[in-house]
Amino acid sequence: MPEELFNSTIAELSGLLDRGALSSVELMKAVIARTKAVDGRVRAFNSYDEEDAMAQARASDARRAKAKGSGSGAASRLEGIPVGIKDVISVAGQPLTASSRILEGFVSPYDATVTRKLKAAGAICWGRLNLDEFAMGSSTENSAFATTSNPWDLERVPGGSSGGSAAALAAGEAVATLGSDTGGSIRQPAALCSVVGLKPSYGRVSRYGLIAFASSLDQIGPFARSVEDAATVLGAIAGHDPRDSTSLRQEVPDYNRGVSDLAKSGRRWKLGIPREYFGEGLDPEVGAAVQAAIGEYRRMGCEVREVSLPHTKYAIGAYYIIATAECSSNLARFDGVRYGHRSKDAKDAIDLYFKTRAEGFGPEVKRRIILGTYVLSSGYYDAYYLRAQKVRTLIRRDFLDAYRDVDVIVTPTSPTPAFRKGEKAADPLAMYLNDIYTIGVNLAGLPGMSLPCGFTAGGLPIGLQLIGQPFKETELLAVASAYEQRTEWHLRRPRL
Amino acid sequence: MPQPNDLKLDHIANLARLSLTAEEKERFGRQLGDMLDYVALLNEVDVEGVEPTAHAFPVVNVWAQDVPEPGLSVEDALRNAPERRDNMFVVPKVVE
Amino acid sequence: MNYEAVIGLEVHVQLKTRSKMFTRVAAGFGLPENTLTDPVVLALPGTLPVMNKGALDKIIKAGLLLGCEIAAVCKWDRKNYFYPDSPKNYQISQYDQPLCRGGCVEIELPGPARNVMGEHKRIALTRIHLEEDVGKLNHVEGASLVDFNRAGTPLMEIVSEPVIRSADEAFAYLTALKTVMIYGGISDCDMEKGQLRCDANISIRPAGTAGLGTKVELKNLNSISFVRDGIAQEIRRQTAVALSGGTIEQETRDYDGQTGLSQSLRSKEMAHDYRYFPDPDLMPVEVDEAWKSAIRATCPELPFDKQRRFMEQYGVPYTITSVLVPDRGLSDFFEETARLCGKPQAAGNWIANDLLRELGAAKIELSQSKVGPAHVAGLVRLVDGGVILSNAAKEVFVDMFRTGEAPEAVVERKGLKAETNLDELERWCAEAIASNPKSVADYKGGKESALNAFKGPVMRAAKGKADPKRVDEMLRRLLAR
């Protein structure tokens, strides 16, 4: 029973909870036990509050009992489900570190909007999941606290920056998790850990309570064991938020119903394969798995055609200018004045800034702050930031042009499977280039997801990326679901 | 685009309020040079007449009405303060 | 050589909104430290700004009142710099797309005498933009204490063109600007509370030349008279430097109102590089005609327009209008009184003299006064109708100010009614004429002042309750027979 519990989907568990075959307390206990058993090796969590989680589970059971007594309708699908939270999303009364020394000891006094929404849906906010410091990285090696291990091969990285969120789910330490995605930070670790990861359209989910890395690119999204679960969590967290001016005022559809309606309609999807995403640098095994997945879509009767996204090769450059510029400003607030780490030996206020920030930030964060400060500095703004924003326009235009002919674009998520810890740590640029397939989606503000589509001969997961049109998450999920229905990759679990 | 060798690392670190060790200066200087070389690729792109994208979708006038809501108690406001005195945040002396 | 000054003012005005610029915690002054904060004000990790519609309405109103061009679209930028009073270490401001451009402030320079209107001039504005205020640092031994109550308060920066020529003009500019802001309900502009703050950019050049000299920024002009004194002192300082053959350094100087002197602020170790870029957390503002019209409908008449109208429409003298007009409440009070009694000049006198005197003595605001326009209008009518005499009217005013009673009731209660028995008055006048034939002859011989000789005995007979005007009329009528 316990193994089935911690490896089950939300859909399965909520059925058990609804029937009274399982209590939230039992589920939470199983997840805690699993976490204690494996997290010493996986290191997905920065911290977790067992007592608080159990209290939430008891409260959920009480709500369920009360609802049953009063004969009110079916509970939310997330009622009593433990959802792990990336440690860059605020939960009132819990630590919030961004895996950085500069926030060591900080306890947030407020809930992020997604946290509030998850709680309102009855979910249990479970633990603080590790990440690359301030979500800057692709491996969690930049965490100030620990490098998370890939549950499929503990010597390898889980991807990043939401490595803790992907690994925890793959290892059975949560039923679903939340991550954030600025340049691929949900999709790439989802691919490397063989789970479903969804980055919604920019503006679909409120960023209030998400520590900003690059405000115009960041978006919160779910990791889940199935496309259906991802749709469930997205439905709970999406929607306009008066506290986030960049969240779009647009109704949130019932994604699960939308997906099943589309499945019934027998719609023949038109899929685009961007030729620029299958060139140099793509691992042959990854390429083969993705081609096999495309073949599967063909067999389903989908129309597959080649499309072109001609500005793809400029995406990484534009991204690193825009993201670092925004981060250099966003991270200015970490100064040791109001909260967080403060240097012990500052002689005056200015000195306090220099020392606190030197002690508190890790090398990758410093590197990006320096680059971002440089590109915004006097005389360089037009050459770098403004030009990058114009290139961003062209990249977005490429996608919108392609969508005149196709519904969804299909690509690999990551050019390679999980790499070994330390393998790319010395060369930041090589690490950045690894984000080639995911970055364009953020620059264009599109929804994108990664789903399991195979394994290398060595047993490492491979992810398939699907890229949807703005705010058409339902169609994106429907295309993903169609593939998932015909394959079994998503059912495999790592041996731990 | 300016050449990476005009990267005045001390000046930039100063603006960013980051003190860097000699080793960091050497390493970051080199890595940032690499990055700037790489992003010089953007110079190839013809951006004549292209509007910059600041937001992924265009929406204007997102605001709230001027109606006050409760804020934090003094206790909550200062709970995370590294140092406090008389309900205020203490910082070392500010020298102009 | 003669030098002339070239002055541009940067004025910061705190908007009178209920909540802050980018979050909804209350804005306010004088509250205990750090009681007006929320996660956004403290820049806690993960927080985001949301614009205050009320603040946008107010800056648009300011722009319309000052004749600015209101931008069809504008955006928000981040101004990056570190300082402990700035929670995010960047300030949300407007860099290259301010909400208002152009416009002007009409000013009045001191006239040749107090009762003569001075010259009017228009000081052109460069721009007005909106930003957020910072917190407050309290310096103690070896440390500084930060209070974030003020942080995030909506702040409007009004930048003038460098067209101000003297300390007096600067003073007049600030006075006029302040009046417009208060009229529009845009700000209370209390300099003591920091609701209006002023920095001046000052340079000098040989009189009559067109170039611009090296400019010095003068900060901490914390009261309206410090603005005048500080600028005057700086012009003298620069002139002295120039005359002695020295060069004026580009610098920022701190004015000390106590000593009347300024001191150079050591130039910062590095030049400012604010790294402005568009704030990705905020969407642009688009102002359409409908929005502008709606705000325009709430715009009051400008103070100087009102003053001209009071003088033309009501024939009220300049000195009285210059008392009534700067206070919108008082001028409204006046107009209502004038409407009720139809005697604007008398109404203006009562309000500008007696009402203000009593308010001052009682140390209360107009809004707290028990005397309303109906009271004053009633009093004017009583005097005009000869029901009471003007010396009795003064007594009635003081009484009704204290009690709030209608003037008629006060007159009744105190028995202050003037003598109105015309038969009796005629008898007293006839007796006075009969007993003084010499003055009768003088008067009839064309000596107008001879009439006064009869007035004393009449007033004595009336025990002071006769209306001098009526006595005058009656005597003339009887003498004309």
Please tell me about this protein's structure.
- The complex is a heterotrimer of chains A (496), B (96) and C (481).
- Chain A has helices spanning 2-6, 10-19, 24-42, 50-70, 113-120, 163-170, 187-193, 227-237, 255-265, 284-300, 315-330, 349-360, 363-376, 382-402, 428-433, 439-444, 473-486; strands at 45-47, 82-86, 124-129, 176-181, 196-199, 219-224, 270-274, 303-307, 408-412, 448-455, 461-467.
- Among the domains of chain A are: 5-272, Amidase signature (AS) enzymes (Alpha-Beta Complex), CATH 3.90.1300; 314-379, no CATH class.
- The longest helix of chain A has 21 residues, at 50-70.
- In chain A, β7 (270-274), α10 and β8 (303-307) form a beta-alpha-beta unit.
- Helices cover 42% and strands 12% of the residues of chain A.
- Chain A contains 17 helices and 11 strands.
- Chain B has 96 residues and is of the alpha+beta class.
- Chain B has a domain at 9-43: Histone, subunit A (Orthogonal Bundle), CATH 1.10.20.
- Helix content of chain B is 31%, strand content 9%.
- The model of chain B is unreliable at 1-6 (pLDDT under 50).
- By secondary structure, chain C is of the alpha+beta class.
- In chain C, 39% of the residues lie in helices and 19% in strands.
- Chain C is built from 15 helices and 18 strands.
- Chain C has helices at residues 53-65, 167-183, 224-243, 289-296, 303-314, 318-324, 328-341, 344-362, 373-384, 390-403, 407-414, 422-434, 437-444, 452-461, 468-480; strands at residues 3-14, 51-52, 69-70, 73-74, 77-80, 90-93, 100-101, 104-108, 120-132, 136-140, 143-147, 154-160, 196-206, 216-221, 252-256, 261-264, 277-278, 285-286.
- In chain C, α7 packs across α9 and α14 crosses α15.
- Chain C starts with a strand and ends with a helix.
- The A-C interface holds A 88-90, 96, 98, 103, 106, 108-110, 112, 207-212, 214-216, 242-246, 325-326, 328-329, 332-335, 337-339, 349-350, 353, 373, 376-378, 381, 385 and C 39, 42-51, 78, 80, 82, 84, 87-90, 144, 146, 273, 275-277, 280-283.
- β1 of chain B pairs parallel with β2 (51-52) of chain C, so a sheet runs across the interface.
The dominant shape of chain A is globular
Portion of residues within helices of chain A:
40-55%
Radius of gyration of chain A: 21 Å
* Secondary-structure-derived class of chain A: alpha/beta
Strand content of chain B: 5-15%
- Give me the CATH fold name of the domain at 9-43 in chain B: Histone, subunit A
Q: What is the overall pLDDT average of chain A? A: 96
- The total of beta strands of chain B comes to 3
Name the CATH class of the domain at 5-272 in chain A.
Alpha Beta
Major sheet of chain B: 2 strands, antiparallel
Instruction: Give the uncertain stretches of chain B in residue-range form.
Output: 1-6
